[in-house]
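note to self: dont lose this again. the chain is below, predicted strucutre after it. 393 aa total, dont forget to put it in the shared folder this time
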Amino acid sequence: MRTAEPRRPKVATSEVVRDINKRVVLNLIRTRQPLSRADLARLSGLQRSTVSLIVEDLVADLWVLEGPTGRLPRGRRPTFLRLNDDRVIIGIDIRPIRTTVALADVNGRFASQEVMPTPADPKAALDELVVRVQRLIRAARGKKVEGIGVSLPGRVGRVSQRLVFAPNLKWPECDIAGPLAKATGLDVEMANAANACVLAAVWFDHVESRNLVVLTVSEGIGAGVLVNGQLARGSSGLAGEFGHVPLDPNGPLCSCGSRGCWEMFGSNRAGLRYYLESTAQQEGLSFEELQSLAEQGDARALQALETMAHYLGRGMRMIVAGLDPEQILVIGDLTRSWDRMGPIIEAEVQAQVLRGGVAPRLVPVHEGGMARLRGAIALVLQKHFAAVPELTA
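---
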C-alpha cells in the first residue's frame, strides 16, 4: 500500500519576490505620485538600494518618469517619480444600444472617445470596432499602447475567454478577444460590466472595503462581487448573476429564457414597463425621459420609479444574506433619482437583515456613465499592478 505523502507547499522563488516588490513600488507610485525614492523606501519598508534598483527597471521599461526635484533643509534634493502618461490603454464598453471606444492613460484620464450604435450581429460589431481601435492607435501618435480592455453586458468563459452569456445583448457565444488581438497585435482583456466596475472602484476610486458588491442597473441587473479583496468569478466565470435569479416563477419572461428574474422587476426596463402599463402611451420612452416626467411631478412616473425601487431593495436582500458585504455600490441612471428611490431601497434591505447582522452601506455612484469604461482600462492595468501573483510550486 502506498504511503500518502503530504502535498509540497508552494514557495516563493526569488523571481516572485522581486515581482511582488516591483508591484508594491509601482502601486505606491500610482496611488501617491509624485514621490521620491526615500518616500518609497519609507512607505514600503524595502531597503533604499532595493527601491533604487526597482525604480531603475521601471524607468527603463517606460512605466515611470523622473520629474522635478524637491527641496529639503539639507542634503541632496530628491527627484520625484510619477507614472508615464505616454503609456496608454484602449477601453471598449459594449452595451445593447451603444458601444464606446476610448483612449486613456495609465492614470485613467481619457484623451478621446467615440460612440457607435451596437450592431445586432457580432461580426459586424467586431469589424467596426477594429476600424475604430486602429484609428485610436494612430491617434496615439507613437505612445505605447499597453492593451485593450473590454467591458461587456454578459459573462466571459473563464477558460475559453469567449462571450458565453449575454441575454440583453442578444449575441450568441462568440470570440471577441481573438479578432481584436489579431487585427491590432495587442493583448485583449475582457470582463463582465459589473466586474469591470468593481475594478474601477478599487483602482481609481481607491475604495478600501474588502467585501463589497457593485450593482449595475440598466437594461438588466449585474453584480460584481469582491470577497476578501478578491474578485469572485466562480468556476465558470458566471459568479454574480443575481439579476437572473427568479423572484416570481410566474413573472414576465426574461431574455435569459426564465420567468420572473430579478431584473424583470428592478431594472430600467421594468420601470418603463410599470409606467407604460399605467398609461395609453406606446413604446419609445427612454428611462431618462421617465425620470424627467417624475421630476415634473407626473404621478404615474413617480409610482413606476417607486415600484422599481421596492423590487431593487427586495432583490438586494439575497445579496445581503448570502454575501454580507460592507458596501453595495449602485451604478446606473437610477442614481439621478436616488433622493426618491434610495430611501425605499434602503428600507427594503433593512427590513430583512438577519439577527446579529449589519445592513451594508448603500452608495449611489454618480459616475456619468464612465464606470464601465474605467473598469475596462483597469482590466489591462491589473496585469501589471495586481498586488500578489500566484506562487509557483
